[in-house]
Specification:
Structural class: alpha+beta
Largest sheet: 4 strands, antiparallel
Distance between the termini: 14 Å
Strand content: 25-35%
Shape: elongated
Length: about 100
């Protein structure tokens, strides 16, 4: 995936990291040339995510939902990879839902 990830905490408090990839000249079984992938972390695990981010980035000030979104976007979507973030979640035993579908 290209670095076009979107990080958003919705009205229910669920964290979504999603991205869309153009498949180029490839047309899939459904006749589309784009695919969407991402992860979802449910609202009741956001406290654990904030604690994890505080451990990983002790100098960052993470006191709001916007700050959580921003640090994930900067540190994992732009600087590293979403796969790296998934590994940190797995090591901290924070459940997440991964998805991939046609856009």
């Amino acid at each position: 995936m290209k670095n076009n990830w979107q990080v958003e905490i919705n009205q229910e408090g669920n964290l979504f990291i999603s991205g869309e990839e153009n498949l180029g000249n490839v047309v899939n079984l459904f006749g589309v040339q784009k695919a969407e992938a991402g992860i979802c972390i449910y609202a009741h695990y956001l406290r654990s995510v904030r604690i994890l981010l505080n451990k990983l980035f002790p100098t960052a000030t993470i006191k709001s939902l916007d700050a959580i979104e921003e640090i994930i976007k900067q540190e994992f979507c732009d600087a590293r990879s979403v796969s790296t973030f998934k590994r940190y979640l797995e090591n901290a035993e924070i459940p997440y839902r991964s998805y991939s579908n046609v856009a």
